[in-house]
Specification:
Blueprint: H1 15-39, H2 47-78
């Protein structure tokens, strides 16, 4: 007697679809970084503005690291 198929069998992973998802995420992160960079162009002088610029700079550093990871993932999935 054979066992019945599971009711929700998972399909085989598709590396091309995964790469498309990674590239879409990369575009979204890149857009977010571009928006953050534009906020730094606003001329505003105050202690709050200085804190804001520091926070945006930290955010950009994190986004740049995320972009590098997404690039690496896309390269691996392209193989």
């Amino acid at each position: 007697m054979t066992s019945p198929a599971p009711p929700f069998s998972s399909p085989a992973p598709d590396p091309h679809a995964a790469r498309d998802v990674v590239l879409a995420a990369r575009r979204d992160v890149d857009d977010a970084a571009a928006t953050a960079r534009r906020t730094l162009a606003v001329v505003w002088e105050s202690p709050a503005a200085d804190r804001f610029r520091d926070d945006v700079a930290a955010l950009l550093a994190d986004l740049d690291a995320d972009l590098r990871l997404l690039e690496e993932a896309a390269e691996v999935l392209a193989r």
